[in-house]
Design a protein that fits this description.
This protein is an alpha/beta fold. It folds into 5 domains: about 120 residues, Tetrapyrrole methylase, N-terminal domain (Cobalt-precorrin-4 Transmethylase, domain 1), CATH 3.40.1010; about 110 residues, Methyltransferase, Cobalt-precorrin-4 Transmethylase, Domain 2 (2-Layer Sandwich); about 80 residues, Helix Hairpins (Orthogonal Bundle); about 70 residues, Orthogonal Bundle (Helix Hairpins); about 45 residues. Helix content is about 55%, strand content about 10%. Helix 4 crosses helix 5. The longest helix has 25 residues. The protein is elongated and about 105 Å long. About 0% of the residues have low confidence.
Length: about 500
């Protein structure tokens, strides 16, 4: 049997009677850590124990430490009854207990949990905080090394609820907490640093602005209380956008927004995407931030329309893409292997095919939207055909094909048949797309870059002509060519 006992939040007197009795009766006692005031009770009672502090000192991270602690308890349980003691209450904010409960079930060990008061009650009492609701509990250790903005990914984005962050055990943990909170809170937001809550003579509560958190005194009994932000100071987050969109579409909302549907919004989605691309091309990060917001608005807009129709919600949209990303990246989230980008693409395509099932007469070209711009669609179709071997042997062979198609365009022009000319020009363009693929060139980017160069040079030609006092329309093509060459030479 495995008995899990809570040591309470502070001094031995805060332990429950049942917990003290269980500790006295323990024949094999393992402590997660002996850095806790209640351990004095064990020394006074002469109860032998094995601490796990050695694992904290020798293993590289907390995940490894917690796994090793669970293994140590299970190994002891294989020989008889074992008692495992943790600070506070075993069922609150104890990752090792969560892991141990699961492992014990897998090994068919009987489990008994003996509780004591958790760290929450004395911490709130020390700070004179009377029932803040709601109250979020956050483990500081989960914030170390977080590389994605809290505003988009987790509970730290919730600025309208109070938060109690525990295990702020040193300056590094405090710094990680500060950086995570600063994603959604102003640097002067007042917080409370609470140390040794419930320990007579050692309890301390210090108020300070958030930006000074990493300079606070911290130890293994430190927690940080973060009050909610007043409405006027809250950072706008994704739920706010969803709420605003729902209000715009609701009773008393905006007449224009209320009359839109998926089809009327189609052009705006396309336009906003192109404006975001333009910001990328111009290396305009400020503009990109704004344009991505406009793209996001379109997504939320469509999701709101679908919600009203009973088709799907924004939660469904997010759930679908997260599930898809996890499923199609088994080399990250599972046991798959992909050592290079090419292997990733192969895996991705294979998983996509499996997702669709065994449809009859499936084409290698399936999945290329007809609504794509023609050049982009040509790129996709060319690449998909090449993946199944329908391709030229090398780039020089594609050049030969371009020469052949050029000759056919010349012949079509001689006939004066516009339909024939359009047909042959299409063949020529597709051959050029294939050459670009062989050369590793993005045709969209290549054409956009050429158009930027052309526009820049043409404006230079216009400026030169204006300086000469001559309209371009009055110049010969030879004169304009001369101005063009000058424009090229100064780039």
């Amino acid at each position: 049997m495995i008995r899990i006992v809570g040591l309470g939040p502070s001094v031995p007197e805060a332990m429950s009677v049942a917990a003290r009795d269980a500790l006295r009766a323990a024949t094999c006692l393992i402590l997660r850590t002996e850095r806790h005031p209640s351990v004095a009770f064990l020394r006074d009672e002469g109860v032998p124990y094995t601490p796990c502090d050695d694992l904290y000192e020798t293993l590289p991270d907390f995940d490894a430490v917690y796994s090793a602690i669970v293994e140590r308890v299970l190994q002891a349980a294989s020989s008889g009854d074992v008692t495992y003691a943790v600070p506070g209450h075993p069922c609150l904010a104890e990752d090792t207990v969560r892991r141990l409960v699961g492992a014990a079930r897998d090994h068919d060990h009987e489990l008994v949990i003996v509780g004591s008061e958790s760290f929450v009650e004395p911490t709130l009492a020390a700070a004179r905080l009377i029932g803040p609701e709601p109250l979020l509990l956050v483990d500081a250790l989960t914030l170390s090394g977080v590389a994605i903005p809290a505003a988009c990914t987790n509970h730290l984005a919730t600025t309208d609820a109070a938060m109690l962050i525990y295990q702020v055990h040193d300056a590094a943990a405090a710094a990680a907490v500060k950086l995570a909170l600063l994603e959604t809170r102003p640097d002067d937001h007042e917080i409370l640093v609470i140390r040794a809550a419930g320990v007579p003579g050692h309890e301390a509560v210090e108020a300070m602005p958030l930006h000074l958190l990493d300079r606070a005194r911290t130890d293994h009994l430190t927690s940080v209380y973060v009050p909610p932000l007043p409405p006027e100071r809250r950072t706008r987050t994704f739920p706010d956008l969803v709420e605003v969109m729902a209000r715009l579409r609701g009773e008393g909302g905006c007449p224009w927004d209320r009359e839109q549907d998926h089809r009327t919004l189609r052009k705006w989605l396309i336009e906003e995407c192109y404006e975001a691309i333009e910001a990328i091309d111009n290396d305009d990060l400020g503009g990109l931030c704004e344009e991505l917001g406009d793209v996001l608005l379109q997504i939320v807009f469509h999701a709101q329309v679908a919600t009203e129709e009973g088709a799907f919600t924004i939660a469904d949209v997010i759930g679908e893409i997260v599930t898809k990303l996890v499923r199609r990246h088994p080399h990250v989230f599972g046991d798959g292997n992909a050592d290079n980008p090419e292997a990733v693409v192969r895996n991705w395509e294979a998983i996509k095919k499996a997702e669709k099932g065994d449809r009859e007469a499936e084409s290698a070209l399936d999945g290329v939207p007809i609504a794509l711009p023609a050049l982009t669609r040509a790129n996709e179709i060319s690449a998909k055909a090449a993946r199944v071997g329908f391709d030229w042997p090398d780039a020089l062979s594609v050049l030969d094909k371009i020469a052949e198609e050029t000759a056919e365009v010349r012949h079509a022009l001689a006939t004066g048949d516009r339909t024939h000319v359009a047909h042959e020009i299409g063949d020529l363009l597709f051959a050029i797309v294939n050459l670009a693929r062989w050369a590793g060139v993005d045709t969209e980017e290549a054409l956009r870059d050429m158009l930027r160069r052309f526009a820049r040079r043409f404006r230079d030609v216009e400026a030169q002509a204006a300086a000469m006092g001559r309209p371009l329309g009055d110049m010969t093509i030879g004169e304009m060519d001369e101005l063009w060459e000058r424009a090229k030479s100064v780039e």
